[in-house]
Amino acid sequence: MKQIAIDGPAGAGKSTIAKFLSKELNLMYVDTGAMYRSIGLACINAGIDMENEAQVGEVCGKADIDIQYIDGVQHMFLEGKDVSTDIRREEVGKAASDTSRFTAVRERLVAIQQQLGERYDVVMDGRDIGTKVLPDAGLKIFLTASSACRADRRVKQLAEQGITADFEEVKRDIEQRDYNDSHRANSPLCQAEDAILVDTSDLNIEQVIAVIKDLYNKTVWK
């Protein structure tokens, strides 16, 4: 199977790039973040303490999660209900962040992600795709950008939504998240040894896509 693994820090543009690549290369885009958000929503619905690893693990183990691709777009189902819109709520994102660090959550979702990678040609983005989820991926990309560049992008994105944000504060938050992601005990963010570093600081989306498509075309697929 053709597998493209894209890892990198927050704000590097992983999801945006992965979505474009999936369309241009006719690959299935696996939104791993949506899976973690679904577990977060399940925990919210259960009314548990997000800091309680045992409770989170119990909810995660019992949650009926299903993934369906409708018109080529990934939809998340929780207990039989399409929650693709619900999981985008701000509080669900926080719940996903709080619960994704627990072993039970990561083990279950990594198993699902690996099954998808075995059944379909995929492009998948996250923090540990190339190191843990798809360690044998034919093409591994570590997408990054300077913290200043990522902060600038985030401030502009918020401005488009009518939200004013302080650049220095956003930059500090990004750098703190980088530290947390790279120092967590379970599946820390790191560049796989065989991953190709792509710095997007001075590149636009079209240029990043062109770089990765060139690498894709040079890859010898099994």
Give the end-to-end Cα distance, rounded to a whole number of Å. 7 Å
The number of helices is 9
Shape: globular
What string gives the helices and strands in order?
EHEHHEEEHHEHEHHEH
Write the layout of secondary structure elements.
Blueprint: E1 3-7, H1 14-25, E2 28-31, H2 32-46, H3 53-62, E3 65-70, E4 73-78, E5 81-82, H4 90-99, H5 103-119, E6 122-126, H6 129-133, E7 139-144, H7 147-160, H8 167-183, E8 196-199, H9 205-218
Describe, in plain words, how this protein is organized in 3D.
- There is one protein chain.
- With 222 residues, this protein is α/β, with parallel strands linked by helices.
- 51% of the residues lie in helices and 17% in strands.
- It is built from nine helices and eight strands.
- The protein has a five-stranded parallel sheet, with helices on both faces. The protein has a three-stranded antiparallel sheet with strand order 3-4-5.
- Strand 4 and strand 5 form a beta hairpin.
- Helix 1 crosses helix 9, helix 3 runs parallel beside helix 5 and helix 7 packs across helix 8.
- The radius of gyration is 17 Å and the shape is globular.
- The mean pLDDT is 91.
List keywords for this structure.
222 residues; alpha/beta; 3-stranded antiparallel sheet; 9 helices; 17% strand
Brief rundown of the structure:
By secondary structure, the protein is of the alpha/beta class. The chain has 9 helices and 8 strands.
